[in-house]
Amino acid sequence: MNSKQAPIEEAILEKGIDLHQLPVHVAIIMDGNGRWAKQRLLNRINGHEKGAETVRSIVTTSRELGIPTLTLYAFSTENWQRSTLEVSALMSLLKKFLESEKPVMMENGIRLNAIGQLERLPHDVRNVLYQTIAATRNNPGMVLNLALSYGGRAEIVRMTRILAEKAAAGSLDPQSITEETVSAHLYTHNLPDPDLLIRTSGEMRISNFLLWQIAYSELHITRTLWPDFSRDEYLDILKDYQQRDRRFGNA
Ligand code: FPP
Questions:
Q1: What CATH number should be reported for the domain whose range is 21-100+123-139+217-234?
Q2: Is residue 1 predicted with pLDDT exceeding 50?
């Protein structure tokens, strides 16, 4: 945590955040690492390294606030198309993050979960990922859900195949399929839908993220690039969320 920051209790009071009205699930599209680096004449990998520091700060803040679930879009199915150098840098950053944060997760009761085509991750990353998920599985404090090699459409295709196979095998009556059946066969079957979706770096798009799950999520897009995204701005966004009138399609 940044030593210049006021204690979280002071910041919560100052912002007027109601701890009883926090989102149950915050999802974040962490965008802008490349542009952050370019602005400083650094390489994209330096941007991702700085982005990983922001990840630590936002995970810590979410845990301190008592947000039950935080999902971070760390690597999309489309990201495999980036240069070999950038992909391997992101993979090694992810591995380093998991190794260094495991004790922090244990200390703070954080349970790690991951969604996406995890089988596509390199062996060493997958091993550390599964070990950390196993080690943290009884932690009661917060679910840190990493979207890795994740794509919303691929998730829906996977769910459709599972349901079709069950129907073909005679264990599922197609007429009995409801929205709950669909939700129960997505990667996120054990998580609530996001109440709040944040995207950094100002792009006005969803980028194949949690397509089914964000049906009623509140959206917040900030122009701040992910490496510059601070605890202060995160708290402001949570305060703004608390002032929204969520109608879920009702008048
Ligand atoms: C988008 O920035 C970000 C990513 C593709 C990866 C996100 C990864 C991190 C924040 C660091 C590692 C993650 C963890 C969990 C330790 P971009 O490269 O698309 O930026 P640009 O749009 O400005 O080029």
A1: 3.40.1180.10
A2: no
